[in-house]
Amino acid sequence: MAYLVRALIALFLLFASANAVFAKPNIVVILTDDQEDTGSMAYMPKVHSLLAERGLTFTNSFVNFSLCAPSRASFLTGQAAHNHGVISNEAIRSGGWQAFKSKEGNALPDWLKAAGYRTALIGKYINESGAGADRGAPPTWMPPGWDLWFSFAGGDGYYDYQINDNGTIRKFDLTESDYSTDVLKERATQFIADQADAKEPFFMLIAPRAPHAPSTSAPRHATLFADVIMPRTPAFNEDDVSDKPAWIREAPSLDASATARLDNNYRSELQSLQAVDDLVEAVCTALQKAGKWDDTYIIFTSDNGMIYGDHRRIGKILPYEGSIRVPLVVRGPGIPANQSRTELINNLDVVATVEELAGVEPELIADGRSLTPLFADAKAPWRSAILFEGSELGARPTSWLNYFRGLMGHERSKKSQKDDGREFTAVRTANRKYVRGGDGFEELYDLVADPYELENKAADPAYASDLATLRETLDLLKSCAGASCWVP
To answer: pLDDT for 205-214, tens place per residue?
Structure first.
């Protein structure tokens, strides 16, 4: 069976690489914002029935840098954060659109255009891209490479925001029809309908705000999941953090009030994802009506994960599983139905996959590998280690960081401001994780015996050999580019 599937994919890619543009597949990427892969997918039945049951689910899917702007820059360049240089969400801290703008003109949409694709971005681009003033692009800014530009250009909420519609600013208010995920859904399905008679293929990136906090649901979903609480793993509100880095040791335990607030926040995020689930269904229906279903790949994933109270923390830019794990489901021509893969995948591989399927020749060195060998063969040779990076570099008082601190019930102290400067690099294998802090503090976890990362084994003599090997691997990967990022 694996041989047959492999042969079908090879045949499809052969046609896709031919000169006839119509032979290339359409590609739709749905990129949620801050969606972890530690439970939320169980509340998205339409993603499950329309994508997972008809395609592949990657159960060990991660991001290189668990923060919005660095992760989105990786999707647009195919590069790890240490190569593209976007390491925060804000211009004043080597991040956001200001740090990315020099890459515009030589990024994924430009390469897709050169390969004969019609391109569309619907939703969120790079943080501060519509902020104006000295922090980001003007609200009417349209990056090169996009035929349809329908991007957020002011306002951070699910209501009361602006969208740059191919250079024209449209304002959305507080009515039910202004709910942002639904607005994106309508524009995405219209774009698909417009391609019904087109011979050229299309690429569409749909990037809703959901479930980014503070989450807001569509009115039709506001009463769902009243009894749901966030997952309580053994790492939740970890009792003994004496073997963790200082910024965790200094974090207070969560009291009952903070836990209740986090439960409410988690429910809100699940509610906001219901409109994304509806969006997925609408996109699938539109593809079928337009006659594009059979030659379209759909990729569902997120820009980074989220931790809810594990190790006394909430948020992202953390080396622990909830922060770096993201959902990844792929369906399309030649992909087997209702199967899973357990290999170590990162968001750079997703970009490489899009490039291969589209016959794209990237002009930047790609740090990931296409997933197409795994489409056909669950036992295809794959990597044995993967790199993670993080650097918080501080945040403005109005940022998401202070929102989460408010949920946890403690203020932004001088000590916590210093905590924002933490940095780390990490390497993960199938059964080990090694983390090196910017101050040199080391963590080593045996993910087989300790999947919740409770016991730091860096000082345990029984793990000395593992520690030495992983130190060497991290030293190789932390500045890798292209082929040197691959650990066979």
So the answer is: 999 999 999 9
* Sequence-separated (6 or more) residues with CB below 8 Å from residue 484: 476, 477
Q: What is the mean pLDDT of residues 320-341?
A: 97
Please give the structure tokens belonging to residue 319: 């080396």
Closest to 308 in 3D by CA, of 232, 253, 234: 232
Name the burial class of residue 167, with classes exposed (0-12), middle (13-18) and buried (19+) by CB atoms within 10 angstroms of its CB: exposed
Q: What is the band of 154 on the pLDDT scale with cuts at 50, 70, 90? A: confident
The neighbour count for residue 111, using CB atoms within 10 Å, is: 22
Paired tokens of 76: 């647009």
Catalytic residue among 68, 284, 480, 485: 68
* CA gap 342, 398 in Å, rounded: 39
Q: Is pLDDT above 70 for 3? A: no
For the domain with range 2-384+397-420, which CATH number is right: 3.30.870.10, 3.40.366.10, 3.40.50.2300, 3.40.720.10? 3.40.720.10
74 in Cβ contact with 64 (< 8 Å): yes
Tokens of 59: 């159960």
Parallel, antiparallel or unpaired: strands 345-346 and 442-446:
unpaired
For residue 405, name the pLDDT band (cuts at 50, 70, 90). low
The verdict on whether 68 is a catalytic residue reads: yes
Which sequence spans correspond to the domains of the chain?
2-384+397-420
| Local structure of 324: helix, strand or coil | helix
- 433: which strand partners? 428, 445
What average pLDDT does range 398-414 have in this prediction?
Answer: 55
Q: What angle do CA 280, 380, 343 make, to 5 degrees?
A: 55
| Mean pLDDT within 297-324 | 95
Q: 283: pLDDT confidence band, cut at 50, 70 and 90?
A: very high
3-state SS string over 11-68?
A: HHHHHHCCCCHHHCCEEEEEEECCCCCCCHHHHCHHHHHHCHHHCEEECCEECCECCH
